[in-house]
Amino acid sequence: MKLWMLAAILFCGTTVLLTSCSKDDSSSDDTPSNVEAEYGIILYGNAGGRMDNIIEDGFYNKVAPLLTDPSKVRVGVCYKYGIDDGVTFNGEYANGGDVVLFELNSKTPLSDNSLGKNYGVQWPEMALYDEATLTNVIDHFKQNMPAKKYIMLIYGHGGGWDKLNDYVREMPESNASASASLRGVLYDEWTESFIGSDALSMYELRRAVEKSQIPHFEGIFFHNCFSGNMESLGDMYPVADYTISCMHSLGSNGESMVSLVKELLKGTDFKTSAINAFEDFKNAANASHENCNGDFNLLDNKEIPNLFPICKQLSSRLQAIYPDKKTVINNATENDIYVPHPDFIFVDLQYYADKMAEVTGDTELKTIATNLRKQMDKTILKSLNFHNSPYAKGIKPNFTLSVVAVDKDTYKGEGGPTHSFKTAYEYTNFHKQTKWGDWLNMVEKKPTKNNPAGEK
């Protein structure tokens, strides 16, 4: 078996050299690199702690035996193991900090420290958040794992749009934060800046894909929390046909990823495979969200920008009626708007529009909310919703996509060391298309009372 490994990393942290060198020169090539698959899946991730065991037991062990025919589905993995603190680390196939790069199939040796020994290096400072790293990984698998179509699977901790870090790193001449830490898609617990763990942002993800040899994927699956966020999706939707995302905290033991591979092996396209996979793992996903609310959505990316003009109408109308409807809007915002997680600033967009139309009685807002629902139905091709939280006043909406909801004081306040919340937010494509920030710059209250504070 050809043993792929990371051979070198330039210390500047921007270029990763990926080679097909082997630590075992006697190995044979059980999967010829020229076998073209119908689908190539590139899994890119870092989670740490107990989740290192989930990626091993919940994905590697279940998927590897299925991958016997390289002409159907091939799976390439670039995964960075978490910090081995002697307490939470429970990876078995590599040591803490190992960066492993390999093709997963039925011949992959999965045993104690096998991946770290044969497929990787101990290099915890390798920055998975750096877009150049991701570009090189994509190029490596394009060259060594040919396929007719490709899917990207991002596995790890996510946080959606973030005021502190999601700003203009790609414009050093601006007032952007000097930190290389941009957050949202994939946190890297090994690389620390003065503001916390570094991570990959949607801006970096989009550019990394666009610069790669696979500039467009058929599907991207975010196995990450809070990725179903309008501000985030508004910047990354051009690089894939479809997206699987979650607007809540994501509880999963890998069942969703395994189900998708099983469906693709049947020879169906990504859209059909994802729809069928949702049915396959829905019971396991519901069980994993015990005492929590949650969701999975399959999105048609070409429909995402069609949500923008409706959101712009919603923002404009709220601003127009706010002086006369301030009391009812403030009361509903503070007490009734469902917040998926108490530590984050997102709300369900459709629920927000419906509630504003309800409490104001405004005919135009009712029309806007109705049109938003119609477009959501076109954008969300398949949805799973889990309503297991007893803490959110019994609210059980059909979850859609989330949007930032804060009050004007927060909006005008601190963002990062060199920029305000407002400056960072208005950099997003979502704001540029909808002027949503103009509404946040006016409203006096933010959702605080209807969050699932007791969720696990």
What would you note in describing this structure?
The protein is built from 14 helices and 17 strands. It has 456 residues and is α/β, with parallel strands linked by helices. A 9-stranded mixed sheet has the order 6-5-4-3-7-10-11-12-14, sandwiched between helices. A two-stranded antiparallel ribbon has the order 1-2. Strands 8-9 form a two-stranded antiparallel ribbon. It is globular and about 70 Å long. It starts with a strand and ends in a 16-residue tail after the last helix. Mean pLDDT is 85; it is low at 1-29 and 169-183.
Secondary-structure blueprint of this entry?
Elements: E1 5-9, E2 16-19, E3 37-46, H1 51-63, E4 73-80, E5 98-104, H2 114-119, E6 120-122, H3 131-144, E7 147-156, E8 186-193, E9 196-200, H4 202-210, E10 217-223, H5 230-236, E11 240-245, H6 255-264, H7 270-288, E12 293-300, H8 308-335, E13 346-348, H9 349-360, H10 363-379, E14 380-387, E15 402-404, H11 408-411, E16 414-416, E17 419-420, H12 421-425, H13 429-434, H14 436-440
Parallel strand pairs: 3-4, 3-7, 7-10, 10-11
Antiparallel strand pairs: 1-2, 4-5, 5-6, 8-9, 11-12, 12-14, 13-15, 16-17
Helix pairs in contact: 1-6, 3-4, 4-5, 6-7, 8-9, 8-10, 9-10
Which properties best describe this structure?
17 strands, 9-stranded mixed sheet, globular, alpha/beta
